[in-house]
Amino acid sequence: MAIELNFTIEGGDFSNAGKASSKIKKVLKQLNIEAKIIKKIVVAVYEAEVNVAAHAYSGNVKALVGENDVVVMVSDSGPGIENVELAMKEGYSTASKEVREMGFGAGMGLANIKRNTDELKIETKVGEGTTVTFSLNYS
Amino acid sequence: MKVSDLVEKYGLKVFSGKEGLGKTIEGGYVSDLLSDVMGNAAENEVWITLQTHQNVMAIASLKDLAAVILVKGLEPDEDTLEHSREEEIPLLGTAMGTFEMAGKLYADLNPGSQS
Ligand SMILES: Nc1ncnc2c1ncn2[C@@H]1O[C@H](COP(=O)(O)OP(=O)(O)O)[C@@H](O)[C@H]1O
Ligand SMILES: [Mg+2]
Q: How does this protein assemble (chain B) (predicted)?
């Protein structure tokens, strides 16, 4: 049986970015999931949260903590991604100047997600929104 | 070397999170790009940065960092302080610039490296 965790994120609200990853980290710790797994999933969830805050209007995070893996879905309503392949490239970013000055917008977020998960799927529709789904197996 | 040893040796200002001063430092990381720190910093490292907003502490907590040092006399935002207190991760400050602070920490953690 999987444990389900849900969070909402508002576009532009960086002060709450990190809430979902922090809570997910705590729950995984309580469940005695391997530290190595926790470290990786936390990076991925944080980057996905920040992407909603930086690039979308609003969104939500759903994490399914199962017996063999953790699956995370981050959906937003927002501008969508025109060219996913380009967006995946390290260093590519459309973040605003303000966002960059805060140290976000290095164009490393999606690459960080990819590097720290076993599977990554990006579904997006320009003008509607994006759903980023990723998973990590425990063993 | 403990965080408290570093504070004492270089007269660092302890803004908040003094509960964490007993942590042992295992390394350092220098970056002002948050995704870079997220992707590459390791547990129990000290992060040296000029970013002062509260996402710095969110990252420090998610990555289990030993402490954060703000350089060049920069002051943290109020919610950064709060987050540091909640997480009990020391938020430190120095008048030094990043180069100087990082150099000192590096030498302390790698004795014999300058010979
Ligand atoms: N949820 C999203 N909605 C719209 N665009 C996105 C989203 N996530 C990523 N992008 C696009 O992909 C680019 C690269 O994302 P990322 O690698 O996280 O870097 P960064 O967020 O630092 O720009 C972003 O600059 C943006 O153009
Ligand atoms: Mg990003």
A: Homohexamer.
Percent of chain B whose predicted confidence (pLDDT) is above 90: 96
Q: Enter the pTM of the model.
A: 0.96
* Cross-chain residue pair B55–A21, CB shorter than 8 Å: no
**CA-based angle B14:A14:A78, to the nearest 5?**
165
Class of domain B3-109 (CATH, top level): alpha beta
Instruction: State the average pLDDT over residues A69-74.
Output: 97
User: How many CB atoms lie under 10 A from the CB of residue A77?
Assistant: 16
Q: Nearest C-alpha of chain B: how many angstroms from A88?
A: 14
Which two three-digit tokens encode residue B61? 């907590």
Distance from the alpha carbon of residue B47 to the mean position of ligand 2, in angstroms: 20
For residue A79, the CA-to-ligand 2 centroid distance in Å is: 14
Domain boundaries defined on chain B: 3-109
Atom of ligand 1 nearest to the CA of B35: 22
pLDDT of A112 over the 60 cut: yes
